[in-house]
Amino acid sequence: MRLDEYARYDAVGLRDLIRGGEVTAAEVEQAAREAIEVANAELNGLALPVFEPALDRSRDPDAPFAGVPFLIKDSGPVAAGVPFFLGSRAVPGVVMPHDSELMARFRAAGLVTLGLTTAPEMAINFATESVKYGITRNPWDPERGVGGSSGGAAALVAAGAVPIAHATDGAGSIRVPASACGLVGLKPTRGRTPCGPDLGESFFGISYNFALTRTVRDTAYLLDAVSGPAPGDKYGAPTPLRPYAAEPGADVPPLRIGVTTRAWSGVAVDPEVAGAAAAVAGLLGELGHRVDEASPVVDWESVLDGLVPEVVSFVAAPLLGAPRPPDPAKLEAVTRQILHDVHAVTALDLIAAFDAHNRVSRSVGAFFADHDLLITPTLGQLPPPHGTLDFDDPKHSVRGWLETIFAYGPFTALFNVTGQPAISLPLGHSADGLPIGVQLVAPFGREDTLLRVAALLEQALPWHDRVPPTFVGGR
Question: Once rounded to an integer, what is the mean pLDDT over residues 419-435?
Fold first, then answer.
């Protein structure tokens, strides 16, 4: 299978070729291996060499993604026997004896896992430029940031190396790189995908596992394959009325849509970024939906007040609980500050943080009593030059660091706190050709609405033929 042919197919398209006998799974895997090597040489999106052989998976030819190439993220132990580093020189390679529940579902879906993608240290940066791995480059402009924390995954999917890759989102880490790299990035509803068996909840219920794709249908089919609670899960999202794969292309009834391009923190938003979101809202208005300038009432200080002790506690706990404490000299500056600050965090601080976030969640939930959808930019700025978001800069306090990354991406973290599903779609481009993501947010549990509207926009403003300069299939 030629690279130019392979790279143009999405995951469902490759699956259908294999099912129809037009290519074999082995031929697709060989093309993927070549594509990953070619793209990684330009972008530095792999944390380890390509797996040889691929990880075990279901060989059922009817599995929903049988034979489709796939990558997993260096964000914590996911697959049995695969070392994870959390993007840090201080983590020697954690190996678990068993899969996470989500990894077991990836295997059961037939996905062919071929590698581990780069992430920033501790996955708390909107840039993927760790000291351990170096800079992961944006396929649209190698001098610009790829986003984070699922940056390696985004770079390699955007470059056509694989059609789909595992990603996580604790404050925007699926949606931010989706915007920076021109991809589809869904953060599901809280409880939609499992985080066990080793975690009862990930980052106090603020972090979500899913994937990055190039098409809405791939997102829908994968959600069908991996969603649903596991036994003992703390959270569970409402059961969908029908398969998510049925939503793209389905009729979209008239919706009540709010749009805002103003950041709740008050930071400036780039006019090109704001203009892309406004244009999408205008198009939906022309298609018959009721669109008004509206936003949830958000106490941004309460969002930050809650996140600071939560970040400190969640990041520090596994490091301090490890058999060997991490070597501070091998940690980046913000992680060192986290380990310093954790000793001052009390149980009462965490209770106050949870209370602050509960208040924010009530306010945002009230907005969706009157609206079916919210449109915002995904990011506040275009992808910045490398080094702009420097996690190893000792001047940052933990709160100061969060303020820095949220000045770049001010629209995503709110919905990690509140739990609604949110998706970034590549619906705009800057004058210089950089992708601009637009975020759609739906009420709790309504991924069906997101997927219907996303597919409508994919048809109205198609992005499939726009590929970056670094694309293994050629331009």
Answer: 98
